[in-house]
Specification:
Length: about 60
């Protein structure tokens, strides 16, 4: 499998996991501001902190 085929397979897998298709219309809502988005955060929909390890190469914290 070459790189192009590998990327296509990965994209297909991601689309299936998200239940999307390439020509599927999607609804985008730009009416939310930051306060609205933050108000929607609850203990039930928060995820745990993710540890990605120490900074690599040019990354800084």
């Amino acid at each position: 499998m070459n790189e192009t085929e590998a990327r296509a397979a990965h994209t297909d897998t991601a689309l299936k996991a998200a239940r999307l298709s390439l020509n599927q219309p999607t609804q985008v809502c730009a009416d939310n501001d930051l306060e609205d988005l933050l108000a929607g955060i609850t203990p039930e929909n928060r995820h745990l902190e993710a540890d990605f390890g120490a900074p690599q190469e040019q990354e800084i914290l």
